[in-house]
Design goal:
Blueprint: H1 9-63, E1 75-77, E2 93-97, E3 113-119, E4 122-124, E5 140-152, E6 155-156, E7 160-162, E8 184-188, E9 194-198, E10 207-209, E11 233-246, E12 252-258, E13 264-268, E14 270-279, E15 289-291, E16 302-312, E17 330-332, E18 335-337, E19 345-353
Parallel strand pairs: 1-2, 2-9
Antiparallel strand pairs: 3-4, 3-5, 5-11, 6-7, 7-10, 8-9, 8-11, 11-12, 12-13, 14-15, 14-16, 16-19, 17-18
Length: about 350
């Protein structure tokens, strides 16, 4: 038998071709696995970010309209029953607002939520000037609610409330810092009025005073109505506006503006926000229809809010336009959208009942 002395050229070429096929298959597997990992990683981050955004908005909506023991439906203004949106509120325990800016946008407390529907670069109702740089085509949602701070009243004195020195309010004096010290609070109980005022002293001494014409916005020169004793308590209150705008890097982000403070970006990668409102027109505590902000006649009729956020993938290395399979289409409020830019998008939608509105 003739001994094998080497490989022929044909055999060598066949071996090289087979080897190249195996290497190409391994490379293809690696690329596919890497792409799959990138897509799953991006989806996981979008999922986490979307859940965080919904939690941030939802926790404020859960407290929207809080008035102590009574809901918005069961409260009336002290002067008359006509609200800032023109609706008529039923009689009940009244709310007294001592702020000089009680009729300003951020303090219209009779409307726990208020929205502005975007049609291109026009919003209806017209957005306030303080909410500037909002991205076109994205709605604005304002939530007026209490904070998490709860302060028991020790005693009601002639011109102030006695509370604990460790009360959770900002240790500042509005007389010395009129533009940065603004402890706005609401005192309430289950038997009397509810009153909103600005604390006009440094609360670290355990006193909450409400003198007129001190600080910004300041209180009116008006006597506080109601008897507030040890069964009363104090909550901080504020208005929070959510909207989408580009950050300094040009990335669409969800912004939150609290009162007149500077807006802060709380989450990158939010391309759009759409909001509809569940309206109860006959007073039976159930939603009769969901309307966009421009179709809501009376904001006191809103008992639920449906928020939809469009999340978009972000990649630090600039390779964020080759992740979507096909045309990357998605559905938003029943309408199919086809961006066709190679980026991943996901829509997060949540409907939240206004608990303090439905009682």
């Amino acid at each position: 038998m003739k001994r094998q002395s080497g490989l022929s050229l044909v055999e060598l070429m066949v071996a090289l071709v087979l080897g190249l096929i195996v290497v190409a298959a391994v490379i293809e597997l690696f690329i596919s696995s890497r792409q799959l990992y990138r897509v799953q990683d991006v989806k996981a981050r979008m999922q986490e970010d979307g859940r965080f955004a919904m939690y941030r908005i939802g926790e404020l909506l859960d407290r929207a309209g809080y008035r102590g023991c009574a809901s918005v439906r069961n409260q009336a203004a002290t002067d008359d029953d006509t609200q800032t949106d023109g609706s008529q509120q039923s009689s009940g325990r009244p709310i007294q607002n001592l702020l000089t800016t009680e009729s300003d946008y951020f303090w219209q407390l009779d409307a726990p939520v208020q929205g502005h529907n975007a049609n291109g670069n026009v919003w209806a109702p017209a957005k306030p000037g303080a909410l500037n740089n909002a991205n076109v085509g994205s709605d604005i949602l304002t939530i007026r609610t209490v904070g998490a701070t709860y302060i028991p009243i020790i005693a009601k004195q002639a011109s102030y409330f006695s509370v604990g020195a460790d009360n959770g309010l900002d240790d500042c004096d509005p007389a010395l810092e009129p533009n940065s010290c603004s402890n706005i609070v609401m005192v309430s109980n289950c038997n009397d009025f509810t009153t909103v005022f600005q604390v006009t002293n440094d609360p670290s001494n355990g006193e909450l005073r409400y003198a007129p014409n001190v600080g910004v916005p300041g209180n009116r020169n008006e006597d506080l109505i109601g008897e507030y004793g040890p069964t009363s308590w104090v909550n901080t209150i504020a208005s929070h506006s959510f909207y989408v705008r580009d950050n300094v890097d040009g990335t669409p982000s969800l912004y939150q503006k609290t009162l007149d403070n500077n807006a802060e970006a709380i989450l990158e990668g939010v391309e759009q926000m759409q909001v509809t409102y569940g309206v109860d027109t006959n007073g039976d505590f159930s939603v009769d229809s969901y309307e966009s902000a421009n179709d809501v006649d009376f904001w006191t009729d809103v008992i639920s809010v449906r928020v939809s956020l469009v999340m978009i993938n972000l990649e630090d290395d600039g390779t964020d336009t080759n992740l979507a399979l096909g045309d990357g289409s998605y559905f938003l409020e029943g309408v199919e959208v086809t961006p066709n830019d190679g980026r991943l998008r996901r829509v997060f939608t949540k409907t939240i009942m206004l608990k303090n509105r439905n009682s």
